[in-house]
Structure prediction request, 322 residues.
Amino acid sequence: MVTSTVIEYFPNTYDGALPMCGPAAGARRNFDGALDLRLLYEYTCADVPESRFACRVCSDGASRCLEDADCPGGACGALEPLAPPEDGLSAECTEFLLTHPEKFSESPSPSDLGGDFVTPRLTACMGDFSGTIPPTAEQLARRDFFVRASQIPESFILTDMFFGTIGIAEVFHRRTNGKHPWGNTGVEYNSPLLTPEERTALNAGMRRVTEDAAAVRYMRKYYQPTGRTRSKVLTVHAHDDGLVLVENESKYRQAFEAAKNTDRLVQLYTPYGGHCGFITEIFPAFDAITAWVERDEKPSLASVRAACPGCRFTDQLPGRGA
Prediction:
């Protein structure tokens, strides 16, 4: 997003850009997706009290904590009152976590320092994601439903829910002055992987949230790409990216079309790699944008494939959904 933003803020400064795996549909659309996942999680895990996203309260009655060590001279007690899921977390829990980043991680890796705020709660609902402890039948059923309803790979659930909790909370409490830039009023959840009965129940049971106009303006300002730049732009995105969905690229192209600037945009896709894990394809992409800038050799799928026969670029395009 930084790459896509600076070439538009400074349209005459950069000759070329290579935004890979970018949230090019803009901040608001991507956080609408984060809200969808959070509300789907609340629907899926509603009968599991241990799955709630909240901090605990120190014995002083005010400070927030996850364990006794967070309360000098005191104890970490009961859960705080639950905040609405569209807030991400309570203001107090958000401040505690953001000032103690060792208490959480965007990555589910067990080698990360400190505790993880997200993983224990998802584990309570859907079972252990590391494969160490076999999930119960109920946990597997919840996980299966969540994957089918969200259509994101199971391997991305933990990371995506970081943005559906701490990510949403940081924006809501620190950026938009307690206003919601996301909403789902009127949205019909229609995953083809659900049965008709499951879809009906989901749409009837999902919490509904209405966005605030001022917060929406903030998110569009910081930032929704416009396609207005003089940079030559080459993007690379994996179809199986479960964090920044490949459909972001469709919206990016629409922005360039609206700006009548599509001659400056080339988009490449890989069928694998998840979120920027296609290491082999990065090098020919870098060579391609360099040749386009320095020698005006505009790349194409065919030319990049020819330069790297072993690379796994694909001609499959993403959908053009809303």
About this structure: The mean pLDDT is 94. The longest strand covers residues 232-238. The CA atoms of residues 59 and 75 lie 5 Å apart. Residues 27-44 form the longest helix (18 residues).
